[in-house]
Amino acid sequence: MADFTTGDPRDPAGPVRAGSALSGEQALELFRRQLDSRLLDIAARWLREQDQGFYTIGSAGHEGNAAVAAALRPTDPALLHYRSGAFYLVRSALAGRLPEQGIRDVLLGLCAAADEPVSGGRHKVFGHPDLAVIPQTSTIASHLPRAVGVAFAIERASALDVASAWPADAIAVCSFGDASLNHASAQSGLNTAAYATYQGQPLPLLLVCEDNGIGISVRTPKGWVEAAARRPGIEYFSADGSDLIDAFEAASAAVAHVRTHRSPAFLHLSTVRLMGHAGSDVEAAYRTQREIRADLERDPLLHTARLLIESGLVTPEELLKAYESTRDHVLRMALETTRNRRLQSAEEIMRPLAPRRADTIAKISPLFAEPEVREKAFGGVLPESDKPMTLAQSINRTLTDALAVHPEMMVFGEDVAKKGGVYGVTRGLQKRFGPARVFDTLLDEQAILGLGLGSGVSHLLPVPEIQYLAYLHNALDQIRGEAATLSFFSQGAFTNPMVVRVAGYAYQKGFGGHFHNDNAIGALRDIPGLVIASPSRPDDAAAMLRTCLAAARTEGAVCVYLEPIALYHTRDLFDEGDGGWLAQYTPPSRWAETHVPIGRARSYGDGRDLTIVTFGNGLRMSLRAAVRLTQEGYSCRVLDLRWLSPLPVEDLLRAAELTGKVLIADETRRGGGVSEGIVAELVDAGFSGEIARVTSRDSFIPLGEAADHVLLSEEEIEAAARKLLS
Ligand SMILES: Cc1ncc(C[n+]2csc(CCOP(=O)(O)OP(=O)(O)O)c2C)c(N)n1
Ligand SMILES: [Mg+2]
After folding, report:
1. pTM over the 0.90 mark
2. Active-site annotation holder among 128, 257, 303, 516
3. Model confidence over 476-488: pLDDT tens digits?
4. Do residues 205 and 238 touch, judged by C-beta distance below 8 A?
5. What is the CA radius of gyration of the chain?
């Protein structure tokens, strides 16, 4: 790397310009990183031309973000815009790494090299486990809800006196583009930050809008970013991102505000976008030459160069020489990077998806609190000495036990605290564990999941609740795009452990319509690595919840725990008063032996004629149907899958082979529902017996008794079974 300070006629330790907070030394250092960043953009295009690079969205024109990194500490967690390249290089250097290391990280990313430091060639991201830079997806603005969660977790970890991934006085920083600011998830983040601050909740979050005035080809209306950014409780700062001194001073003021007040700030950094949106973008198609030229006038590199020359720290000749030698250096490094190994196999690629350390999960799952702690948590009545419990009670007691043993665990969502949930599942938890660990959130599923995402990556153990399955869908990207991919795109260096409790499925009597009886889980089933638990009975619910929490803690698993609303308070199985759907709470001494591993089904009966494969409400219906068939002399067995992802394929095949006839009783829809996956597994495995399926219809669910016309019924199960048996 060129040293262009040789002709130094001035004191580099003094202000770079009279009265400025930035020293000559700092300005020089930042210029070097700005230059590196620009040359990486050029290298990206060169690599693309050689067919060795796979990403050309650059940071050119945005290099003012170097000043933001300089105003922060290298331990402040950062979630970065894809044009925050100079920020990344400055962060890397501030952490004590050589400039080459930061450059190399980026080049490895461009080339999709297997030893890229965070994603290992899976995605071009700015991220590094040692630099507190959490990698982002390409879904613009989807990181804002998480960023709010990270800021929240910094403070909450201190309040709970538990370890966190960040220093107690850290602040979270999150950058994004001007067009991205309009996205629902950006608005969710801003609103949550304002809402929290409005209520006096500390939230050390710096939001940085890198405003280049355009999103691909669509202009952002003049003044809109400022108008949209101004929110109660969020302090607004602005700076010209082309002017290093201005950017540094505004960033420093914003950082100081956030760090001292522990409340959010919005730094509006006006930038320009040079070299188009990406390498393939023909800017001339939607911008005039004049506009493009005007942006070139504001090139931050030229501005910093002018500053350095005016300060007398360097001469124009030295700068030109430095530019050329840095270019040669970066391009040489780019060429070397092309020789790096790329990902070789599906197995290698998928390794970080779902490590499933079953033994560790089995070991951790039975953890319980000291007897005195439990005694206190349960207010003197230990659940194992209590009467047999319903599903809702069993989940409630299991949450209590888990909160008692995991001080970093939090339960939150809409109406979970005082009310104790719409169905009473979280009743009493806030009273027992306090509002720091069990709390109501604002009514925004993206925000709820964002708090989970941010808390999880900060080493807390979030258990967010989604009030109804239908309302998960409007925030699904926070699970699909954010939660489920983090481990994949960071090779497990960052994880966001969480157990998302979702009340779902149909069959609620007298309450309903589609949105309270939604039975659509297809959109969850295809998310790689996601665990879907579908407990049906109180005893399984308890064991499976413990398994999910253990998987979250040991391997950062993201678990969706689907609770069948219609069975929450069900007591009987066959006859009124039989108490067949209640279960005695298992004492902790027996948790190890009753542990339920992920992906293991549960079998009922030893019939030889027919296997009914089911889950959720289907289990209760199938057991009832099976008993009637048995009374007629047929010999049936019922298999409760319990886990819908990964499916318990081994158990399924074994149960199928035992009878040679399989009936799938699936309460989800016929198209895109669970039964399709089950049939596919049976066929793939070469099962040669008979297969039939009964499902709910491909319909939304109507109000009142009409719902029965589209939902799978016990009668249908019985009739289909009879047909298979005859
Ligand atoms: C949710 C989502 N929708 C669409 C896109 C495609 N896309 C990528 S960048 C972009 C424009 C973003 O503009 P802005 O936020 O101003 O950032 P800039 O590129 O200008 O820095 C769009 C539409 C995306 N990545 N994510
Ligand atoms: Mg923009």
Report:
1. yes
2. 516
3. 999 999 999 999 9
4. no
5. 29
